[in-house]
Amino acid sequence: MKHLVRLLAVLALATAVAPETQALPGRLRAYGGLVEGDEFLLGAGYELKIPFVTLIPNAEYVFLDKSYFSLNADATFGFLPIPLVDIWIGAGAGVGFFTPEQGDSKSYGLVNLLAGVGTDIIPLSPYVQYKFVIKEGADWSVLTFGIRF
């Protein structure tokens, strides 16, 4: 629950500063999705475009019976230059924090592989992204839908 409050605070802050992002060299992203098709995920990040690559630090909370939160740093590479459409592949690393209802909290390293497509036709640039997360002992897939602003 503590991690959910933190994530909601980050999303609230991201929404509050959205009008000010015009002066920044990137844009915010907010998204929701499904982990393995049945667990809901909520996340937020920031896209920083540099030549040939977009860096995306982000935070995610998965709504489980137990508490799961991750901090990630992903990088994507856009290809197939189509006007007003973004297509990308990427990879990244992160740290997952797992707090069971009973017992000690655990943290572990993550590797992320991702691919997505989005459009800039409307102001809140919608996108869909697939992420495959590799963790020692378990791998899972995540399908997210989000907006960039």
Outline the fold blueprint.
Layout: H1 2-16, E1 26-35, E2 39-50, E3 53-63, E4 67-82, E5 85-99, E6 106-119, E7 126-135, E8 138-148
Antiparallel strand pairs: 1-2, 1-8, 2-3, 3-4, 4-5, 5-6, 6-7, 7-8
Distance between the termini: 27 Å
Helix percent reads: 10-25%
Stretches with pLDDT under 50, minimum 5 residues: none
**CATH domain class:** Mainly Beta
Rg (C-alpha, Å): 15 Å
Q: What fold name goes in the CATH topology slot?
A: Porin
Structural class: mainly beta
| Biggest beta sheet summary | 8 strands, antiparallel, barrel
Nearest-integer average pLDDT: 85
Question: What is the number of helical segments per DSSP (H or I, 4+ residues)?
Answer: 1
Query: Outline, from the CA principal axes?
Result: elongated
Write the H/E string, N to C.
Answer: HEEEEEEEE
In what range is the share of β-strand residues? over 45%
Strand order of the largest sheet: 1-2-3-4-5-6-7-8
The CATH architecture assignment turns out to be Beta Barrel
Per DSSP E runs of 2 or more residues, the count of β-strands stands at 8
What is the structure about, briefly put?
With 149 residues, the protein is mainly beta. It has one helix and eight strands.
Verbal overview:
Strand 1 (26-35) and strand 2 (39-50) form a beta hairpin. Helix content is 10%, strand content 66%. The mean pLDDT is 85. It is mainly beta. It has one domain: Porin (Beta Barrel). It has one helix and eight strands. It has one helix at residues 2-16; strands at residues 26-35, 39-50, 53-63, 67-82, 85-99, 106-119, 126-135, 138-148. The two termini are 27 Å apart. It has an eight-stranded antiparallel β-barrel with strand order 1-2-3-4-5-6-7-8.
